[in-house]
Amino acid sequence: MNRLVIIFSIFCFINVSAQQEPLFSQYYVNDMALNPAISGSKPYNPFTIQNRQQWLGFEDAPFTTNISYHGTFDGRSAMGGYLMFDQTGPAMQAHIQLNYAYHVPLDYKHINVAFGLGAKLKYYSLDFDIDDLPPGPDNAFDEKAYDKTLTDASSGVYFYGKNFYSGFSVSNLFQSSFKTHIENSPYFNSEYRKYYGMGAYRLNIMNNDWHIEPSFLIRKTQYQSSIVDLSTRVFYLNDTWAGLTYRNNGTAVFSIGFATNNIHISYSYDHNLQGEIMQHSYGTHEAGISMRIKTLSSQRHIGFWSF
Questions:
Q1: Residue 60 and residue 269: Cα distance in Å, rounded?
Q2: Do the Cβ atoms of 99 and 118 come closer than 8 Å?
Q3: Of 43, 47, 129, 159, which one has the fewest beta carbons inside 10 Å?
Q4: Could you state, in order of their start, the residue ranges of all structural domains in the chain?
Q5: What secondary structure does DSSP assign to 214-238, as a single string?
Q6: What is the pLDDT of residues 162-197, one digit of tens each?
């Protein structure tokens, strides 16, 4: 098994300071997974499946799947949830989260604010062979296999209209304990809080046929520097788009998307512009498919523009 992947798995699942919930480059396609307040904010109920194959070319590189659905009941109350599965060599995690959101119209024609709460059940598993590890004792790896189920919560606020949105959310509010603290380790084995900030604005650039949407996503975890995605998508007729993202860790992302009836398909390619991995990886590939399910409640709801 590739040594790099083993080391990556170890740091992600035992050294909790490096633990991260898997994230997708196309955050704008499935944003409800980052902020529970987004549940029910669309003028349709989206059912979305996303797959992400990271670092193609490495054996047992990270592979992530997210399946989500959300919608409004009456224009005010909404629910949603997602199921996420992530496999990286010997390390596996699975999350299931249920959200509730309440939407308040500040201006009945243009602007809403929503507040959301999420309850999460998380399962972690690490199963490796001792022979795969570097030689020498390590208190963090005293068992061949390890698994743990945790519960936690998230919350968020989302401010939006037809041409813009902004939001802030926090996950792992309770900082659930992952494993007994390792003696002499500078880190505590608990799920540190993760903070997300996001925003976007849509501009008409030609005859209502062409639009441009700059957006950003900021992710912050304790003991780690912020990761910032700056994205721009150009739309044609609201159903075909292409986009570019720059991430401040030296990653560039190209993305495309198109629609046919109520089915929307998207794809993105990540390429590392710096670091050792750039020489060995064939990049990261991400694909998604979303189905819009329109109901009377969702169509009466004021949502961020329809795509």
A1: 19
A2: yes
A3: 129
A4: 3-299
A5: EEEEEEEETTS--EEEEEEEEEETT
A6: 889 999 999 999 888 776 555 555 555 667 889 999
CB 154, CB 97: distance < 8 Å:
yes
Name the phi and psi angles at 118, rounded to 5.
Answer: -130, 140
Q: At 167, which helix (H) or strand (E)?
A: strand 164-171
Contact (Cβ atoms closer than 8 angstroms) between residue 212 and residue 232: yes
| Single pTM value for the model | 0.85
The residues near 178 (Cβ < 8 Å, ≥ 6 apart) are 16, 19, 124, 148, 150, 189, 190, 191
Contact 40, 118 (CB under 8 A): no
Residues linked to residue 190 through DSSP beta bridges, in sequence order: 177
Q: Which residues contact 44 (CB under 8 A, 6 or more apart)?
A: 71, 262, 292, 293, 294, 295, 298, 299, 303, 306
Report the pLDDT value the prediction gives residue 133, as an integer from 0 to 100. Answer: 60
CATH architecture of 3-299: Beta Barrel (2.40)
pLDDT (tens digit, 9 = 90+) per residue, 222-236? Answer: 778 899 999 999 999
CB 220 within 8 A of CB 170: no
Q: Are 139 and 61 contacting, i.e. CB atoms less than 8 angstroms apart?
A: no
